[in-house]
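Could someone model pyridoxal-5'-phosphate with this protein?
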Amino acid sequence: MNHDAYPDNYIRGILNSVKSIAMVGASPVNVRPSYFAFKYLAQRGYDMIPINPGHVGKELLGKPFVASLSDLGRPVDMIDIFRNSSHIMPVIEEALTLDPLPKVIWMQLGARDDAAAAKAESVGIKVVMNRCPKIEYGRLSSEISWMGVNSRTLSSKRAPVPTQGMRLSLNRTSVGGGDTAASDRAAKNKSEQS
Amino acid sequence: MSDRLPGFSTLAVHAGAQPDPTTGARATPIYQTTSFVFNDADHAASLFGLQAFGNIYTRIGNPTNAVLEERVAALEGGTAALAVASGHAAQVVVLQQLLQPGDEFIAARKLYGGSINQFTHAFKSFGWNVVWADPDDIASFERAVTPRTKAIFIESIANPAGSITDIEAISTVARKAGVPLIVDNTLASPYLIRPIDHGADIVVHSLTKFLGGHGNSLGGIIVDAGTFDWSAGGKYPMLSEPRPEYHGIRLQETFGNFAFAIACRVLGLRDLGPALSPFNAFMILTGIETLPLRMQKHCDNAKAVAEFLAGHPAVASVSYAGLPSDKYNQLARKYAPKGAGAVFTFSLKGGYDAGVNLVSKLQLFSHLANVGDTRSLVIHPASTTHSQLDDAAKVKSGAGPDVVRLSVGIEDKEDLIADLEQALGA
Ligand SMILES: Cc1ncc(COP(=O)(O)O)c(C=O)c1O
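Reply:
Sure, complex below.
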C-alpha cells in the first residue's frame, strides 16, 4: 500500500467492514482528539473498546477501560492507535501476538512508522497511517463538508441526513473530487525528514 | 466508485454541492437562517466543543456557505476553506491566526491599493508590522526576513498592473524562513493559476471579483493548502498550543491538515464576526459554475484590447503580461498559460488629463472601483483606489498619475475596442 495517498475505496472498504475497534491511548479527557474520535465512532455504531492502562477500573462513555491489547480477551476487527510515531512499534508487536489477528491497524493523524506498517502488512493486516477515522468517515459520508472541508468526492445523489447515533452510508457512488496533492506531498516530506 | 479525478469545469459545477438531503432540491438552497436546532443537550455540547460536525449559528458556519467553501477548496487543490464577508475580511482573519502584537509579515509592494492601506494603517494598530518587498526582486524578500517574521503575502496577478508574481521563487524564501506563504489569487482565479501547486500554504480571494464574477455580491474566502506544519518551532500558538477558548484543544493535533481553516473559523470568524451572508454565498456559487467559460473569455478579450491599445498613437505604454513584449510575459507563460487575466493598465501620452478625458468619454466601460465583473470597467487608480498612497508609492505599486486601469468584461471584443477607439479619438 502506498501510504502517502490512500484511494478512497481502500478507506471506504475498511470503514464499511470493521465493526469492533480497540482504541490504544483512548483518553477520558474530553478535549483530547482520541476522546473526540472515540465518541464519534461510538455514535456511528462501532463497537468501541478503550485501551489505556492508566484508567483501568473506569469507563469511557460507558465502555470499561482495558489495560492493554493482550488483555482484550476477545477478537477485534481494528486497532486505532493514538500514540506518537516513536511509540507505534511496540503496539504493533503486541497486536501481532493476538489470535485472531486484527484485520486493520490504523494510526492517528501525525503518526507514521513505515517499518511497523510493513511488519503488519506482511501478515495480511491492512494499515492506515496519519489519518483520523472520524475525519475519513465524515468525509466519505459527506457529513464533514458542513465544515468547509474538501471531501474529494462528488455525487449527484442525495446526501444522508446526519443524525445522532445513525450509521451513515459511505457507499454513495461518488467520483473522485478535488485533489489535495500538495498536502499529501508535504506530509510525505515531513515523514521522510523525521 | 472510481477514484478518477474530475476536471476543473466539472468541479466548478459540482464540488461541494449535492441534492439537499431532506427535499432533494438540486440547486444549492439558500439556508437563510441565523441558527440551527440541536438534537439534545449532548449534541449541543459536542458541537460547541468541536467534537461533532454540524451547524450552530451562521456566524460560525452555514450550509450554503459550506458548499461555497468546499467548491473553492476543490478548485484550488486545498484541504478546506472558510468563506467570509469580503476579501479584506479574509486577510484580517488569516493574519489574526498567525501574528501576535509586535510580529511582522512581509508583503509584496505590488498589491491592491486597499490591501496596502489595510496593512499599513489598520494592521499597525493591531501591532502587526508590514515589511514591504519588491516582487521583481526576490532577494528583497530574503533580506526582509527577521526572527519576528510570521508570514509572506503576495498577489498571484497583482492589482492594478496585472503583473505576474514568481510564486515558486517566493515560496522557496518562505520555506527557508519557516513561515507560510499567503497568496491573494483574486485576479487570476484558480482557473488561471493554482498557487498551491506552486508552493502557497494559504490562498485568499476577494470572491467579489472573478469568482462571483457578476459584480453583485461581496465575499471573501480563505483556502488551507494543508501543507504547513504549525507545530514546528512553536511560532503559531493559535494552532499548536492548547486553546483556552475551547478548554485546551490543540487545533493542529485535532484537525491535522485542515487545522488552519478550522482556526480561521473557530478563532477568527467566531470572534471577529465577518460572516458571509448565505444569500451572497448562493450568488457567488452560481457565478463559479461558469468561471471557466467566463475567465477564458475575459482573458481573450483582454488580450485583444491590449493589442489594440498597444498599437494606438495616443497610448504611451500598455502593461499586460499577455503581450509578448511585456516584461512579465515569461512569467505569464509559466504560471498562467491559458491567459494573463483581464485586469491591466496602460498610460496615455496626454498624462493625467488625457486619463480623465478618456474615462469620461467611454460609453460601454463603466467608471467604477471594482474589477472582475461581466461588464468592462475602467478607473484612474491615482485619483481613486490608490489615492491614499504618496506619489512615490503610487508609481511603485504601478498606479502613476498617467495610468488607467481596465477590467475587461465578457462583451464582444469588437464593441469594447470600438468604444475605446471613439474615446481615445479626439
Ligand atoms: C486583489 C484584491 N484583493 C483583495 C481585495 C479586497 O476585496 P473586498 O473588496 O472583497 O474586500 C480586492 C478588491 O478590489 C482585490 O482586487
